[in-house]
Amino acid sequence: MKYVLVTGGVVSGLGKGVTASSIGLILKACGLRVTSIKIDPYLNTDAGTMSPFEHGEVYVLDDGGEVDLDLGNYERFLDIKLTRDNNITTGKIYQSVIDKERRGDYLGKTVQVVPHITDAIQEWIERVAVIPVDGKEGPPDVCVIELGGTIGDIESMPFIEALGQFSYRVGAGNFCLIHVSLVPVLSVVGEQKTKPTQHSVRGLRSLGLTPNILACRSTTELDENVMEKISRFCHVPVDNIITLYDVSNIWRIPLLLRDQKAHEAILRVLNLKGVAREPALGEWTSRAELCDKLHEPVRVAMVGKYTGLSDAYLSVLKALVHASVPCHRKLCIDWIAASDLECETAKENLENYKNAWKLLKGADAILVPGGFGDRGVEGKILAARYARENRIPFLGICLGMQIAVIEFARSILGLLDANSTEFDPNTQNPCVIFMPEGSKTHMGGTMRLGSRRTYFQVADCKSAKLYGNQSFVDERHRHRYEVNPDMVQQLENAGLSFTGKDESGRRMEIVELPNHPYFVGVQFHPEFKSRPGKPSALFLGLIAAATGQLETFLKKDVPKTWGLSNGTSGLKSHRYVNGSKLANGSLDGIYSKGNGIHV
């Protein structure tokens, strides 16, 4: 087994996760089987109880693991299925050691950070690294390990010590350390400054780890004299210094590594030069190039609670990008704080209220993602109502599906107090209820989590057709509340169609409005299984409906990989505002509130 460790220095947020994912992808393109491990030094057992504002989205795996969002990057780039054990936290390590101590496994010894915690870390890495994650038998060839945080953080010290011991144990030819550092450009003088990287590498060496390769983040490509200076002071060959400069889209990062022959440097350190081939990235290159050539926009209104931080909806954003590319459209996200759509905001901040509704009415499609808590719920219900009444393509995910059902019950059935017991425990018309098997005393790991099977109840529905006319589909879940099965018949009699249910037939999974261009709500999270070149069926349906292409997609089975031709589809994009169809103009770039964002 070969190991590649990715660490970060100077500041957080340099893109270690994307770098680790890109390294894994380029090694996979060389013909190697790759797995990944993310180490998070926080004391939480997992990411399940952490606020999206503080840590970004909680990514859910097939086995129900609630993990760091970087595991989503690994799965998307490498097209693999990881397990909860691929995310190591300080909480997990200490819990396992304490459990052993309570059982008496240490035979009365004094349990200490060294050797017991450090040994537990190394044992965990070795155990998880050999688990196949690509659907094939046998262990992977390479394990890419990302150490979260920044070198020098107090909480990561046990992991640094463990990884130093680990590198010695497995041997020089089996361990490659890639350190991601910052080379800032001071705007005053316009010079690339190497001192932060020098200090970072010095700190890394003082902790017992020596970098084999330096990945330097900068706004522009490093000058040759700058690379020579870094090489001289950091004791790393110039050939092993890579520039990770700003690119037009995230899919170009692996190509950046390939063009600088990063794979050759890694293979050289790991003694794999004679085993691996040249990286085959033809399809990936075509996709990256196509993404840059798209100009005609599709505007999606994202109506949520955590719109102040795009990482809170990272997988949703990626799934929209994956769906926009085969539709040959440039994705434009209009972030709308759900509470800004509510009447209370009109009284307190009229400008925010008007701006929110202007964005909603200008959108080609409306998406209401998952969330918890009652803040902004009424605004989400108003967004669902607007989409239903004005025939705007709509996708509701998890809570987004639940609010769509509540809105229908209020507007069509006339049940004005219809609500979820999450928001109003005393409602007389509980459309959404707490699941019987849920826990009301413990929050962590007590939801309905992981991959569950949904059976289609109606063959001639949009969701079934988009999934390729299968009888069932497996998708990932994360929820405590569900549509009240006792109200389903009443809702269906009024025109709502529950086209997908679980194996018992009592749990609603997919809801549609048959006579609407595209109005779909799902209890599961389809964004977690979307991949570049393999977009989520329901996200593809949303974008296709928003661009006037849905009927074209529904007439054929959804292929495994959507076309990557560099031409345009020839189909015009339209948006509906107050029932009138308006042609879109041209808009360069990918925008979020008017600001460029990477995809």
UniProtKB/TrEMBL annotation:
A biological process term (GO) from this entry: pyrimidine nucleobase biosynthetic process
Q: Where is the Glutamine amidotransferase domain?
A: 310-543
Which positions are tagged coiled coil? none
Q: Name one GO molecular function term.
A: identical protein binding
Q: Known EC number(s)?
A: 6.3.4.2
Q: In which pathway does it act?
A: Pyrimidine metabolism; CTP biosynthesis via de novo pathway; CTP from UDP: step 2/2
Checking PROSITE patterns in the record gives:
GATASE_TYPE_1
Domain CTP synthase N-terminal intervals:
2-272
Identify the Pfam families for this entry: CTP_synth_N (PF06418), GATase (PF00117)
Question: What InterPro entries does the database record attribute to this sequence?
Answer: Class_I_gatase-like (IPR029062), CTP_synthase (IPR004468), CTP_synthase_N (IPR017456), GATASE (IPR017926), GATase1_CTP_Synthase (IPR033828), P-loop_NTPase (IPR027417)
As its record notes, the protein acts as a catalyst of: UTP + L-glutamine + ATP + H2O = CTP + L-glutamate + ADP + phosphate + 2 H(+)
What keywords were assigned to this record?
ATP-binding, Glutamine amidotransferase, Ligase, Nucleotide-binding, Pyrimidine biosynthesis
EC category name: ligase
Fetch the NCBIfam families from UniProt. PRK05380.1, PyrG
> What is this protein's function per UniProt?
Catalyzes the ATP-dependent amination of UTP to CTP with either L-glutamine or ammonia as the source of nitrogen.
Give the UniProt family note.
Answer: Belongs to the CTP synthase family.
Q: What is this protein called?
A: CTP synthase
